[in-house]
Amino acid sequence: MQTEFDHLAALAGKGRISRRDFLGRAAALGASAALATTLAGKAFAASPVKGGIIKAGLQGGESTNSLDPALNLSQVTYNFCKQWGEFLVRLTPEGGVENLIAEEIGASADAKIWTMKIRDGIEFHNGKTVTAEDVVATLERHADEKSKSGALGILKNIKTIKADGKDVVVTLGDADADFPYLMADYHLVIQPNGGKDNPNAGISAGPYKVAVNQPGVKHGGERFANYWRGDKAGHADQIEIVVINDPTARLAALQGGQVHLINRVEPKVVDLVKRMPGVSIENVAGRGYYPFNMFCDTAPFDNNDLRMALKLAMDREEMLDKILRGYGSVGNDFPINEAYPLFSADIEQRKFDPEKAAAAYKKSGHSGPILLRTSDVAFPGAVDAAQLYQQSCAKAGIKIEIKREPGDGYWSEVWNKQPFSLSYWGGRPTQGQMYSTGYLSTADWNDTRFKRPEFDKMLYTARAELDQAKRKAIYRDMAMLMRDEGGLIVPFFNQFVDAANTKKLSGWVKNPNGEMMDGYALCECWLNA
Q1: Could you tell me which residues are beta bridge partners of residue 500?
Q2: Model pTM greater than 0.90?
């Protein structure tokens, strides 16, 4: 219960909840009138403090990183773009959509035509005013088949985009009631002329202007004086992200005071971190998962008997216990869990079965070792996870050969390039968006090469279906198809486990949409006076 009160206090301190609403929600949580009043007094006294430099030590940075938001791939670019970039909308911790550059969003009765009214008076870092034409150009660039944008998969349903005064009108091929959620995708940073002139310029309308950009080393920003939400974000004078891919070095930097925040705390050291003076573990369950990806179109993984053997050879319970130390939940070989409203809880949980795995492996006709690639940067404990999987596969007579890849270059040279490797996904707000981004046949980020026309058809049908019960049934069929014939092994869904020096820093709000407060920690937290 204290966690709920802490969450309320953080919302109050950031001005995102009224005193009246605070009192009402505190009472609903069981607080007496006197206690609720006391809590409100403390919470609303914790208002943001301006000034100083907030520093984060983050895993997930490479020398090949770009400021082009279309190419946002790993944690450092994901977090940094939330500092300098501004979006049409953002996701709320409660699972809704908050309007940003888009002041209003409305749809036609059939959910095929969406109109977004662009807010007046928002300024880009270069002094230009954000217009409907900039938004149109941004969406056009990311929807271009040649863009290589990570958002390409979710934009393929767009038929036309046009500016009409202050409005942006988007016409879809098929109805999609989830369209506003798609606009929160972290690749869709609104840029002058959509970034068509220079996508790598790092210019948008976010709380910080890019001041330092050393890929794989360090990124920094200086507060943008004309940021339109300056009372709610951009509290520090400067923010800095130091790339620290090694988990031990990252923890040492936090403990030594070199940084205020770190991401990806390994579950095996959480208890140690909890004993550090002034340091708080900030963990929250969400939609993220740590998969083992097999290319369905590449031998030997083009054989479904072999894929099934490798799925049945996964001891999920042991993996959850030894790798995540309970900071997660078991997966079932499709990318959806109970965090999604239309999740089907009646799908049978796949279990470790070495005998059935051995039979499927024999049926596949394959022999010899199978190469699995992993790296420390794939996810916390990824090397240990590969070794544990190697042991469970051995019980089924399957030999796994592990290749440990360097962190720098893993996301550009191994993920989505090699046929069997470990990875991570942060999840997406809706099932339709998750499937469109990673498992639609034409998606640029289809990292299992799962390409099935019948699956695509079901996805299009589900997006257009406004009856939630019917949509849920379609999503169930899609999950079963992926679970039994796809190239995805999902041993577990993870919690996001970050750590913060709460003696020096305030304003943290738990957000299940992504690590580091869905990427907004640096710009929405503040240094204590």
Answers
A1: 261, 280
A2: no
Nearest one of 20, 188, 231, 206 to 88, comparing CA atoms: 188
Share of the chain residues as helix, strand and coil, in percent rounded to the nearest 5: 35, 20, 45
What is the model's pLDDT at position 16?
Answer: 62
- Cβ atoms of 81 and 189 within 8 Å: the answer is yes
Q: How far apart are CA 483 and CA 352, in angstroms?
A: 14
Q: Are 220 and 238 in contact (CB under 8 A)?
A: yes
Per DSSP, 160 falls in state E
pLDDT digits (tens, 9 = 90+) for 219-235: 999 999 999 999 999 99
Taking only the tens place, the pLDDT of each residue in 171-182 is: 999 999 899 999
DSSP string, 190-226: --GGGGSS-GGG--SSSSEEEEEEETTTEEEEEE-TT
- Collect contacts of 402-408 with beta carbons under 8 A, ≥24 apart: 402/372, 402/373, 402/374, 403/371, 403/372, 403/373, 403/374, 404/374, 404/375, 405/373, 405/374, 405/375, 406/375, 407/62, 407/245, 407/375, 407/376, 407/377, 408/62, 408/63, 408/64, 408/216, 408/245
Alpha helix positions (H), 211-353? 247-255, 270-274, 304-312, 316-323
How many residues would you count in the chain?
Answer: 529
Give Cα separations from 93 to 16, 60, 337 (angstroms).
11, 23, 17
Residue 245: what are its φ and ψ, rounded to 5°? -75, -25
Cα separation, 319 vs 409, whole angstroms: 26
Q: Within 10 Å of residue 442's Cβ, how many Cβ atoms?
A: 12
| Mean predicted confidence (pLDDT) in 260-274 | 95
In sequence order, what E strands does 331-377 have?
370-374
Q: Are 17 and 8 in contact (CB under 8 A)?
A: yes
Query: Cα-flanking dihedrals φ and ψ of residue 412, to 5°?
Result: -100, -25
Q: Residue type at 26?
A: A
